[in-house]
Amino acid sequence: QVQLVESGGGLVQAGDSLRLSCAASGRAFSSYTMGWFRQAPGKNREIVARLIWSGGITYYADSVKGRFTISRDNAKNTVYLQMNNLKPEDTAVYYCAAVPYGGGRSAYDYNYWGQGTQVTVSS
Question: Tens digit of pLDDT for each residue in 71-86?
Answer without folding.
Answer: 999 999 999 999 999 9
